[in-house]
Structures are given as C-alpha cells and as structure tokens.
Amino acid sequence: MGPSRTGKSWTFLTNHARVLVEITRDPNTRVRDIAGAIGITERAAQAIVTDLEAAGYITRTRVGRRTRYGIDASLPFRHPNDADQRVEGLLHLFTEHDAPSEGELTR
C-alpha cells in the first residue's frame, strides 16, 4: 500500500472490516495475531474488537485461556447508504466462507 497521487496512503476497507474478516477466517485467533495481520497495534485491535462486540457483530466466549469469537453476519453495514446490505456478503467475498444464515452466529 503506497501513497496515492495526493501523497496520502489509504485503503478501501476500514480496520473494523479487516478485523471482522480476520475473525471470520479464524474464530480462535488472538488479538495479537489480528493486529499483526492487518498492521495495527494490539491496543487498536482490542478497541475495534470491543466496538464490534458492542454493536453485536461479534461475541466473545472464553474457552480455557483463549477467546473464541462468534459472528452475526446477518447484521447490516453501519453506514446509512449501505444499511440495506448485510456484512455476510463482504465476509464471503474476502474469506470465501459461506456466511451463516440470517441471525445465526458462527461458533
């Protein structure tokens, strides 16, 4: 990812989307691994996981000393212009996993 013609670096996906994709790829992933995969700090990754959980996109379940994530891919995008689309399409596009049925959490 290099600078654009304006000299600023940018991407099409937000870090929130990237964290959700990483969790979809591996529901047993660690925050440290998420951060490394998308190039952000662990603290930033933890804040995003907290945001996604508060909004209902993910759930966290402790399994021993690890955390397992569940995803509700039936929820819509948060931007009003995209609210008629569910995140399952994005997750399928970037992970090639079949998204869960409406209202179904992955575990």
TrEMBL record:
Please state what the protein is called.
Winged helix-turn-helix domain-containing protein
Ranges for the HTH marR-type domain? 15-65
Source species, domain of life = Bacteria
**Record InterPro entries:** HTH_MarR-typ, WH-like_DNA-bd_sf, WH_DNA-bd_sf
